[in-house]
Amino acid sequence: MGRDDAQGLRHAVLTYDVVVTTAKLILLAEDDPDIQLVARLALKKAGYRVVATSNGAELLARAAEEKPDIIILDWMMPEMDGPTTCLKLRENPDTADVPIVFMTAKSQGFEIERGLSLGAAGYIVKPFDALTLGAQLRDLLGDRA
Amino acid sequence: MTDATPPYQPAPVPPDEPARLAELHAYRILDTPPERAFDDLTALASSIAGTPIALVSLIDAGRQWFKSRVGLDSTETPREISFCAHAILGSHPLVVEDATRDPRFAGNPDVVGGERIRFYSGTPLESPGGHRLGTLCVIDRVPRTVSPQVGAALNIIARQVVTQLELRKAGFELREQSARLGAMSRMKDEFVSIVSHELRTPLTAIKGSLQLLIEGAVDDEDERAHLQTAALSSTERLIRLVNDILDVSKIEAGALQLRRRTVDPRTLVETAVQGIAEVARAAGVGLRVEPAGELPTIDADADRVVQALVNLMSNAVKVSREGTTVVVGVTREEDGVRFDVRDEGPGIPAESMDRLFRKFSQLDSSDARRVGGTGLGLVITQGIVEQHGGRISVESRPGAGSTFTIHLPAGPARSVAPV
Hints:
The complex is a heterodimer.
Chain A: H1 3-12, H2 16-22, E1 25-29, H3 33-45, E2 49-53, H4 56-66, E3 70-73, H5 82-91, E4 100-104, H6 109-117, E5 122-125, H7 133-141
Parallel strand pairs in A: 1-2, 1-3, 3-4, 4-5
Chain B: H1 17-26, H2 36-49, E1 53-59, E2 63-70, E3 76-78, H3 84-87, E4 94-96, H4 109-112, E5 119-126, E6 132-140, H5 148-214, H6 221-252, E7 261-263, H7 265-283, E8 286-289, E9 298-300, H8 302-319, E10 325-333, E11 336-342, H9 377-387, E12 391-396, E13 402-409
Parallel strand pairs in B: 8-10
Antiparallel strand pairs in B: 1-2, 1-6, 2-3, 4-5, 5-6, 7-9, 10-11, 11-13, 12-13
């Protein structure tokens, strides 16, 4: 029995309707289709609803209508990279308060510092742990996750 | 008016002239601003010899140029009228006690008029390489002699001038070496950063897929199948990365071994096209092989040439928009065959051309680049081609696509006329 079974139990005490309506929405930008799939399934398993996009520009276009609770950004993406997207999200009053987490293969100290200096609430280095991704988000964001 | 001017003799050119000039230029001293170290030495020479003029004079192709001067305004004079050009012909100091009595100088414009030189003593500046680059000289407007003590002192100062030249050169060489090492160190950092990123990305897909599959966390059968495929393709990506890094290190060490045999260039193109067809199809990019005429066989490592062609085609597909076509051609040349890989992509700006074959460099190195990779493919391709005695070239116009061309020499003649 893994940690996530325990989480599953916690959700199971809620009624189905409540789970659907209270599950927080994560808007994800990840250009690698394989990693996007893994992240989507891992977050779904952790109890989140997920809308996945392939780059920052797509994510910005979706952010207004989706009103996400959390935004997860890869760093290197075509069209618009993660740092640029992060700045634009912070500048826009509609998304300025949504917590942003970088999830990237950029793993060096100066890169992490830069990511956080852009206003991100958290930084997850790839390869991430698909089974504890939800727990990691809760560690980083507390009640907001 | 009669021509009363006595003749003068321009100095002959020394036998080591080309090497001498090359060495002089290697000191990179000509036309540089005055420097204290040299000015101190001419001041000392003028003071010891008791002459109004002292110079560090360097003999360039058509002039003498003064690195340091006391008592003289001009910074250079024509070599033709230079006393120092005479002084560098021998290894001992040239002493002219009274120029009006020396047939080499009596008619010299700087004796007859100009500086009205009478006395000249020039000690050759002999480099450690054995070339006399110029002189430390002292000059007076009245005839004089040089005592043995003053002569010895001037020789010592001349050697100090050479020491200063050497120090100066060692200084800029050290700065340049330090800059090169700095650039190498930055390249190494960049390498570590790129390799780390390129390792972490497929590892993320592999680890995540396997975790979710092993945990039974995915109910949907299609999604499970997709995860399995993702794990496998990411594993293959890792293997390619490891192979690429090993190939580059072999190429850099000059240790790329070729298993040559006689091959048909057409077969190489077909094999390469098969290798890339799926990638092209997935990207919605067409792949066309132009019909080839008669071709000679070549003596080549088939696997390596296919690898080189696949690299070029893979790049071409990567930069191509959906719906465009990559065209591959192979044609006979006088001394072998040429392979062309042409795309309709964005082309390569002229200023980026020199970065193409540089390790780990990518045309677009921004975080928003469309095309991923390690920046090793073209380095490997070039290494393979050159190991075959061939060459690679690029033609590109921004907006009009690029053509990469590999020339490979023909193998040893196969068909020998029947006896």
